Amino acid sequence: MNNMYASLRRFFLLDPDVTFLNHGSFGATPHPVFEKYQEWQRLLEKEPVEFLGRRASEFLAQARQSIAPELGCKPDDFTFVTNATTGMNVVIHSLPLTSDDEVLTTNHEYGAVDKTWQFYSRQKGFKIVRARFSLPIDSQEKWLEELWRHVTPKTRVISLSHITSPTALIFPVEKVTERAKQEGILTIIDGAHAPGQIPLNLEKLDPDFYTGNFHKWVCAPKGAGFLYVRSEYHSMIQPLVVSWGYDNPSSQRSTFLDYTEWWGTRDISAFLSVPEAYHFLKVHHWDEVRQQCHQLLKDTCKELQTYLGAEPVATDPDIWNAQMLSLKIPNLHPKDIPEVSRKLWETYRIEVPLIEWEGSSLIRISLQAYNRWEDIKKLENALQNLLSSSSMQGE
């Protein structure tokens, strides 16, 4: 890992004085990709009307054509969105749900998506059902059984993360999509953390709707995400922002692309830079990078279990984790999270999220090519000092 760190850390623009263990929040972009992003921005500013008014659709189509093999889908089955939350909003906004329907999700979902479901539930009257799982999670089969206990004749939609945000778990969504199709239930997958962290083949995974981010683990510029919709559901998608693509009789495309591509004036440079981000990953053998990050993650799990008494949310990181890991910290009370977070940043310059989840205190560690074992030891020492202080013990 140290050899990898030495060769790849130099590409990232991160502050060298910060121990950055939070790639999962917003990602980090290497300078060759960032330079391509700025090239697109300069081209836009050189002639804005030519760029946006006459060539934007052409540029976006070329980018989709380049990216489609990375996602394992057809170019016209996905559109660019600024982030996965926006993609989820587009889908949830479009669903024809009523007060007779139920939506099944879990208690591991991203907070903004939970709020989106709450918002539309209050508007349309459908019921939200949240599955909870026995911890630590061990068997995928047991996980699926516990999820399916909440399926009823009223279940119309199952909405899951591919990799969860608070608990950093890889859910076996392919098992869910297969079973859901047999029972006529729509599947919506929030893949915010999946592209670039785990292999992705949407046609094989076969969800009805899937949204993800490029700016996290693909390392594209901020504000680059996508929404995939199975072709048979293109006509279901309604515009979240009504603009020129609506009711366009001269269009030769599906309404899905017309409704989602043009939302008024916006900088699409981040979208157009995604092919360069995938190129960077290929050139630098990212499959090996991911494997080394995963090994460092397993070593981190053992280290923090041994010296902090931390408890993993799932039993086997080879099954449930890739480059992210969440651990319970038993001797950190949730009320002390803000103070410990502040001191980790202000005193130790460590960027890592502490999360209150289900009454427990979690630490979520995200590892990328620029991380090394010294980063983990610095975190461990900082936490030992903070958790042993009298203020954290309630004295």
From TrEMBL:
Molecular function in Gene Ontology: transaminase activity
Domain Aminotransferase class V span(s) in chain numbering: 30-379
Keywords: Aminotransferase, Pyridoxal phosphate, Transferase
One Pfam family linked to the record: Aminotran_5
The keyword Iron is annotated on this UniProt entry: no
InterPro entries in the record: Aminotrans_V_dom, PyrdxlP-dep_Trfase, PyrdxlP-dep_Trfase_major, PyrdxlP-dep_Trfase_small
Highest taxon of source: Bacteria
Transmembrane residue ranges: none
EC number: 2.6.1.-
PANTHER family assigned: HERCYNYLCYSTEINE SULFOXIDE LYASE, L-CYSTEINE DESULFHYDRASE
Protein name: Aminotransferase
Species whose genome carries this gene: Anaerolinea thermophila (strain DSM 14523 / JCM 11388 / NBRC 100420 / UNI-1)
